[in-house]
Amino acid sequence: MRAFIPIILLFQLVIMFSLQAEEWSSTERQILNQFSFKHIPHYSRDPSNKLLNNANAIKLGKSLFNDVRLSHNKNIACSSCHIKALAYTDNKKLAKGMRDGNRNTPSLLNVAEQNWFFWDGRKDSLWAQALGPIENPAEHDFTRVEIFHFIATDQHYRKNYQQIFSQKDHALPTLDELKYYPKKAGPESSLDHVIAWKKISKDQRNRVNRIFSNIGKVIAAFVSTIKNKPSRFDRFIDEINTKGKSTVLNESEQKGLKLFISQKTGCLNCHSGALLSNKEFHNIGTGIRGMDNGRSEIIDAVIRDPFNCLGQYSDAKPEECLELKFANKDRHVLTGAYKTPSLRNLSKTAPYMHDGRFSDLKEVINYYMSIDQEKAKETDLPAMKKLSKVEQSHLLNFLLTL
Fold this sequence. Notes:
Cytochrome Bc1 Complex, Chain D, domain 2; globular; two-stranded antiparallel ribbon
């Protein structure tokens, strides 16, 4: 029995050492406070969508989000790729709908707090983003005229839609009026469907677009309610704010956090605020010239988009569309740039980057460690100061607390 006493004491010392609280300066505590879960708004706001926080819109949007009938093969819903148990991702390298896509599925947690949507920011609102996959041939492969027919003829959806939209210019067509519209048509589909779209009158197209945009707004109303719960990291910050120290994170995780907020890594340059994202676009060397140039390829399309904040289907006043008005349009600067993802729920959202090229966080850290002076010249990243294997382990352990 006596032989075991030193071993037990040693074990206790190891536990005490691993849980000891790091010292945090007042400057560090101020930096940590910006990450607090409390800074994520409980209710989202988007001046271009007056239906956010509308209970009836949220209910209808949730039904549509989970309805596989909004797809060409009646087998794909928004929730097919945005799976709740996986932090609203799908854990696939590339999204797969009607066929393989070319981008990784981003998480929807806290997505309503972003300013731009999709990896390249091709949409400037959550409701406009919700419309994209529906018409995308690689995702739902449904046309906006099919949505028009579907909402008008399904009695459940028709009733719920009419409870929300009572204005005359938002009204659904009668069954008799539907006879004057093709079954399938839209400007973002196959050639036959585009031709069918162009054959209907301007007033008919406007009516379809109005109802189509309304569907995007109710889906966005539901998606805006998808928020993450406080993590162990958030409990740690609460204790740091109240007590000045905490053992909620172990020693390695705290050392990793100190590295994360230090100039040695520069993580804070992009991953700041409560979402751990500055919501901006950066070239970190993952674009492929001539094949996928990121933000630079779509910036003109965002400005012309009929469903943008300044468009006729937006609920916003022009002076409320500042992100769109002052968007960076320098294609040279935006080449190869993608939106900075949130790091919250990071352990559930693998694989990583816009094309899912890294299967785990070790590969991500190794990539950043590979940025030398030559590579830095081609990206927005500085030449990385090399971390030891132990430091890399600390950083990884911290990231998993998010």
